[in-house]
Automatic annotation (TrEMBL), chain A:
It comes from Agromyces luteolus. Keywords: Cell membrane, Membrane, Molybdenum, Transmembrane, Transmembrane helix, Transport. The keyword Transmembrane applies. It is a multi-pass membrane protein. PROSITE patterns: ABC_TM1. GO terms for cellular component: plasma membrane. Its main location: membrane. It holds the Pfam family BPD_transp_1. One of its GO terms (molecular function) is molybdate ion transmembrane transporter activity. Part of the binding-protein-dependent transport system for molybdenum; probably responsible for the translocation of the substrate across the membrane. This is Molybdenum transport system permease. It is found in: Cell membrane.
UniProtKB/TrEMBL annotation, chain B:
Keywords: Metal-binding, Molybdenum, Signal. Molybdate binds at S58, S86, V188, Y206. GO terms for biological process: molybdate ion transport. The gene is modA. GO terms for molecular function: metal ion binding; molybdate ion binding. The keyword Signal applies. This is Molybdate ABC transporter substrate-binding protein. Residues 1-20 form the signal peptide. It comes from Agromyces luteolus.
Length: 283, 270, 253
């Protein structure tokens, strides 16, 4: 970084030095490196994939089981996130009128799972809902319900890590809508619920859709909180990422196949939903 | 917990890599570090530096103590431990992690490393057997291996891809028990943690884990387990950045002082 | 009328007669500003509230519509006390300054909105048809608000408000979002619609022309206080403040 002797390959295209929209060379170089950091690992994954045996690998019972479980739990988690996250986003957007400490506390509560290592989330869930947890012990004593090591626990772990993504996407959409449309609806006879149902919700629909996609892909990739809170049992709690991690220890080819599958599903969902419901998010 | 451990290993590996690069060539300075068993009592000076030891999770307590003692003997050497599931560690070594020494909880992970040409010969330095671990007070009234088949109980085992899981599978198979596990963890310490938290009623772990748990779990002896023995191999790695120190550490672990520590923690003799 | 709108048909429901009066006597605080005003608006005699920017005119309207809370006082419509009612139960229609149409709904569904809150989508759309026809919006019925001109949007907003059959109509700076060239014609058209509505009407403006065309009484609000009231002629005869004198001197606001 000290001497400019390591001049990177200068752009060979001739351009006016201050062409409109042109990039300064450090910006261009660093942007290129940044892009490489993002893309090259995936290139390696695709390049090293055992394409010949891929069909056989993906048809394995253990792989299909993990795929079905992952799709099912991520869908359920997205549903739960929609049901809880949209109202939470409304609360957050309306909290602008609250006293500052309460507002900050609320925002922090929603932000923390976003910045928390997922494993910590898993430990926290275990301490809350585990058999000796704050609530879990009562659930066990009163109803004989134990949450950890169930498919429900997988969904819960996914909700914990994915909910903030949905909340912030919807909150952003809410903030950019004109609150006066809601006031106008009220003067036209709409109750609070009707305002929400007929005005607020349709106006933030693109944000909700974007949030749901983020939420789904995040839930699909969830690993740390799941393995800590829900464990790892084929068909019950062993989702694609966990199966991929475990396979990496003994059968790297299967692990790569699982990773490819995860990549394909994530990218597929993103493309599909973006074209259908997210015209505003298109690049 | 797995992810953070992996992250730590990766970070440590990166740091070690940088340090090694900064230190320049890590060649054998004098004749002390030959591959033959160096006598641990004679504290011949080694080239100063940091060696990275990849060790099975079940060796955590033993290697922490051994590393401290080795550093006492060789103040010029720092020992960094990366602890994890043996199979995962083996994959990392094969993938080029700059490790000096590898100690596994069973022979197959070591075979992975030897087959890749990254270790010449491994020495078995300890053995271990399985035991049932239950939460303090044994709330579910676990009596023996047969209880692992009870559907209504919460059972944690290691996944078969790691040594403790392979041993557990062999043991259950030999005993004719059709276990009903609720989770298959990726290393033995994860099983132990879930038992200690009371989240499961029982788990199969190494006897050394029960002993080192400090009373947070109770052990139940399994007579049939005596025939299912895990053999722990150790090897200085062929591409070790610090071959002399790596050989010295390996010799230290396999030598009498290492034997003392391992004995005390419940590991059997090779 | 200069435009070729369909001949004004009678309002779809309810005759214009026997409309209740609006009586307001309120104190409202918004941030650092405090507005105190008392007035009556009688059906068929629209009242213009004029005043400089920041005088609290729009706050006063919002208080009557129930969109901001009042600190003290009362708002009565006929013999109904409405100051404790939520906006959706006051029957106060509002034409917002820049109309605030629902961007996700077609013109038809905007106009049908109030009916939709009370019934099915199908019934609401049917109920909207006469209003669309009345305001010359039939050909625009399937457009979205983003595709309308300013004048068209104003007509949609007015049709939407009146289709809710309010007892009181509030207009907030109705001309300010229109191009200056359009204002003259649109103002005359709006005045016609206000007359047809026939109920108590309050129009907030800082334009003498609006006050002259749309209202027959004027209330001057300055810095949260009423400084003068009367007809424009009465104001002209004896302007109470420098602001009133300046306001009367401008030709177009």
């Amino acid at each position: 970084m000290t001497a400019p002797q390591t001049t990177p390959r200068a752009p060979t295209r001739r351009r006016p030095p201050r062409a409109h929209g042109g990039l300064a060379w450090p910006v261009a170089v660093l942007a290129g490196v940044g892009l490489a950091v993002l893309v090259l690992p995936l290139v390696a994954l695709v390049a090293r994939a055992p394409w010949g045996e891929l069909g056989e690998l993906l048809a394995r019972e253990s792989v299909l089981e993990a795929l079905v479980l992952s799709l099912g739990t991520a869908t359920a988690a997205t549903g739960v996130c929609l049901m809880l996250g949209v109202p939470l986003a409304v609360l957050l957007a309306r909290a602008a009128a609250w006293p500052t400490p309460a507002r900050r506390l609320l925002r922090a509560a929603v932000t923390v799972p976003l910045v928390l290592p997922p494993v910590v989330g898993g430990i926290a869930l275990l301490l809350l809902l585990g058999r000796r947890g704050l609530i879990g012990s009562a659930l066990d004593d009163l109803f004989g319900i134990t949450v950890p090591f169930t498919t429900g626990a997988v969904v819960l772990a996914q909700v914990f890590v994915a909910l903030p993504f949905l909340v912030f996407a919807v909150e952003g959409a809410l903030r950019s809508t004109d609150r006066r449309t809601e006031l106008a609806a009220a003067t036209l006879g709409a109750s609070r619920w009707q305002v929400f149902r007929h005005v607020t919700l349709p106006l933030v629909a693109p944000g909700v859709a974007a949030g749901a996609v983020l939420c789904f892909t995040r839930a699909l990739g969830e690993f740390g909180a799941t393995i800590t809170f829900a464990g790892s049992l084929p068909g019950v709690t062993r989702t694609l990422p966990i199966a991929s991690y475990l396979a990496m220890q003994t059968d790297p080819d299967e692990a790569i196949a699982l990773a490819l599958l995860l990549l394909a599903v994530s990218v597929g969902v993103l493309l599909l939903l973006r074209d259908r419901w997210l015209p505003g998010v298109r690049g | 917990m797995l992810r953070s451990r992996v992250a730590r290993v990766a970070l440590a590996a990166a740091v070690v890599g940088v340090l090694a690069a900064c230190a320049g060539g890590a060649g054998d300075a004098d004749g002390t570090g030959g591959p033959g068993p160096a006598t641990p009592s004679t504290a011949d000076a080694l080239e100063s530096g940091t060696i990275t030891v990849f060790a099975a999770a079940s060796l955590t307590d033993a290697f922490e103590e051994l590393a401290a003692r080795f550093e006492e003997r060789h103040p010029e050497v720092d020992v960094v431990l990366n602890l994890g599931g043996s199979a995962a560690l083996a994959q990392q070594v094969v993938a080029g992690a700059p490790a000096d020494v590898f100690a596994a909880a069973a022979e197959p992970p070591m075979a992975t490393v030897v087959d890749a040409g990254l270790a010449d010969d491994a020495t078995v330095f300890a053995t271990n057997t399985l035991e049932l671990a239950v939460p303090t007070g044994n709330p579910a009234g676990i009596a023996g291996l047969d209880d692992l088949a009870r559907e209504e109980l919460r059972i944690a085992l290691c996944d078969e891809s790691v040594p403790c899981g392979a041993a557990a599978a062999t043991l259950l198979d030999e005993a004719g028990v059709d276990a009903a596990p609720d989770t298959l963890e990726s290393d033995v310490k994860a099983v132990l943690t879930k038992v200690a938290l009371g989240e499961v009623d029982a788990g199969l772990v190494y006897r050394t884990d029960v002993r080192s748990s400090g009373g947070s779990v109770e052990g139940i002896d399994v007579p049939a387990a005596a025939s299912v023995v895990n053999r722990y191999p150790i090897a200085a790695l062929a591409e070790a950045p610090h071959p002399a120190a790596a050989a010295a550490f390996t010799a230290f672990v396999t030598g009498p002082e290492g034997r003392d520590v391992l004995d005390r923690l419940g590991f059997g003799a090779p | 009328m200069t435009r070729e709108t369909p001949a004004p048909s009678p309002p779809p429901r309810g005759p214009a007669g026997a409309r209740p009066a609006l009586h307001a006597d309120v104190t409202v605080t918004r941030g650092a500003h405090r507005v105190e005003a008392a007035f009556d608006a009688l059906p068929g005699h629209p009242l213009a509230v004029v005043g400089p920017n920041g005088a609290g005119k729009s706050t006063l309207l919002a208080a009557i519509a129930g969109l901001v809370p009042v600190d003290a006082g009362r708002v009565r419509i006929g013999d109904r006390d409405v100051d404790r009612l939520p906006p959706e139960r006051r029957r106060v229609g509002v034409l917002f300054q820049d109309y605030v149409l629902f961007p996700h709904l077609t013109v038809r569904d905007n106009v049908a909105f109030a009916a939709r809150m009370r019934g099915s989508r199908h019934d609401a759309r049917a109920a909207a048809e006469p209003w669309l026809a009345r305001y010359g919006l039939t050909t625009l019925a399937d457009r979205l608000p983003g595709e309308l001109s300013g004048g068209q949007a104003q007509r949609v907003a007015l049709a939407r408000a009146l289709a809710a059959e309010p007892e009181v109509l509030l207009l907030d700076e109705p001309m300010s979002a229109l191009d200056v060239e359009l204002r003259h014609d649109m103002r005359a058209e709006l005045a016609q619609h206000v007359r047809e509505f026939g109920g108590a009407t309050v129009v907030v403006t800082h334009s003498r022309a609006d006050a002259a065309t749309l209202a027959d009484h004027v209330l001057v609000l300055e810095d949260g206080r009423v400084t003068q009231r009367g007809t424009l002629e009465e104001l002209a005869a004896a302007p109470a403040t420098p602001y009133v004198r300046r306001m009367l001197a401008t030709s177009e606001g």
